Each structure stands twice: as structure tokens, then as C-alpha cells.
Amino acid sequence: MKRTIKPTIRVIPSGGLELYTEAFGSPKSVCLLLISGAMAPGDFWSDGFCKLASKHYYVIRYDHRDIGRSSAVDFRKHPYALKDLARDAINILAAYDLKKAHFVGHAMGGHICQHIALEHPARALSISPISSGPIAKTKIDEIPLTEGEELVISHTWKLFTERKDGESLEDKTKGFMEIWKYLNGDFPFDEALAKTYTKRLLRSPVQLIAPGNNHEMIMRDASSGKEGVIEQIRTPTHVIHGNRDPIALPRYGRAIGVSVPDAWLDMIDGMGHMFFNKDLERKIFNIIHLYIDQL
Length: 295
Fold this sequence. Notes:
By secondary structure, this protein is of the alpha/beta class. It has one domain: Rossmann fold (3-Layer(aba) Sandwich), CATH 3.40.50. Helices cover 36% and strands 16% of the residues. The strands form two sheets. The chain has a six-stranded mixed beta sheet with strand order 1-2-4-3-5-6, sandwiched between helices. Strand 1 and strand 2 (17-24) form a beta hairpin. Helix 1 packs parallel to helix 9, helix 2 (82-95) crosses helix 3 (108-119) and helix 5 (169-183) packs across helix 6 (191-201). The chain starts with 7 loop residues before the first strand and ends with a helix. The model has no long low-confidence stretch (mean pLDDT 93). InterPro entries: AB_hydrolase, AB_hydrolase_1, AB_hydrolase_fold. This is AB hydrolase-1 domain-containing protein.
């Protein structure tokens, strides 16, 4: 019989809001803070991933403001930006009485990692943006998209806009499965893993996971910083990206890797934007652990 490892749950105050957090492992270990992407609760980082990582680290995952079990925000009255989400992550560290952490962020979470490295460098032991892009203009922006890249973008957004949202939980879950499978790249799609995540995602109020939600609003300016900004990052940086990512095209992962001084870039063959595959989860954790171990 497998021993079930249950996380410790804490609700953390941050700027007048409440953030739902879960911690795995020993507080005596160095912290690995996992940051999800836009419209994604902390459950994006699967239980299996967190339990694997907790063998080596004190792992914390959390729901951003405006998703999952954290506070919702009236964005018109109280707008916020990525730097505010970076402050949320720092406030979580403070609430756990932790001075520093390794930050791992997926998609929007990778943008947040870069803000942390620039605005809170004393708190970051390292950052690992996954399936993400730079928070500022880079030389890559001067290179036009190829015909192949434009076709990928066109097909991806067509798939997103044509997805039908059913009324029942089963129908809604089915709609997400089509998207997740496409975003999974060439790796075998673990439908059970994706369904577990989707059912947890659907605990959120419907308006928080609908197109045009608050996270999507702030991501419209996610890469608007002036050229040269991310070159100022001095935090050890490990970029992980899939060469089959149809959302954050591979060129954007390379842009971080080339622009941040001494950054490591791991381009994973066959990986898409998501990783609903247990072998790929293990691979991603192992290369994160390998990078941290050599610092």
C-alpha cells in the first residue's frame, strides 16, 4: 500500500487578499516555490510532481489571486500587474518564515519568476521559467515570424475559439481534454492526469477561467518592458521549453536563454506547452534538480 502524503494547507494574507497555499515536505529543506500560469490554480503542479520534489525540497504550490481558492478581485476597481503577482509570491515566502527559495514558474509563472529576479533578487536562489517568454523586448522581436510559426499560432487560436463549453462538469471536462491533448506536444497524453487537474480547475468560478479574465488582461503587456531589461537579471536562470510549444513558441524560450547572462537552456524535444505525462514530469523535475545541484 502506498503511503499518502498530504500537504499542509495555509491561507496567506497578501495585499488585503487571501492566497490558498499547500506545502509538501520538510520545512528544514530548501524551498521550491511553484508558480502556475494564467488562469491556472496551484494544482497545475500535480500531486505526483510535488511529492517527487518534496524528497529534496520544501515544496509550496498556491492559487494565484483570481483563481481557485484564493481571493477574487474586481479588476476594474483594483487593477494589478505581474509585479503584484511577484509580490504575492514573496509574501508567501514571508508568511512561511522563509528568506529565499528556488522559483519555478510555468507560462505566466515564468514571467513572474523574471520579475522576482529583477525586483526581489535577494529572495531568489534561482529561477526556472518553463514554457514562458521574456518580460521585455529582446533581439528576437526584430526577426519576423516564419510562415510555419504563423500557421501554428493561427491553428492554436482557432482551436481555442472553437472549443465548446458544455453545461455539465463532464461536458466541460471533455472540452478541455481536446485542448490539453493538443498542447501536450508529442508525448503520450495521460488523460487521467489531465482530468484530475481539470476537475480541480473547474472548482473556480466560471468567469475566472473564461477568455478575457483578469490574468489574460495582465498578460497582454507581459513582454512590454524595454529592451535590455532581462539582461540585468543576475539570478541563476534555467530555462525549460518544449520545441513543440504552440503558445509560447520555442523562439521565446530561446530569447530568455540568450538574453539572461549565463542562463541554461533545456529545449525538450517533443514537449508542448503542457506536460500531462508522468515521465515528462519526472524529466522536468530531474533537470531542475540537476541545475540546482550544480549551483
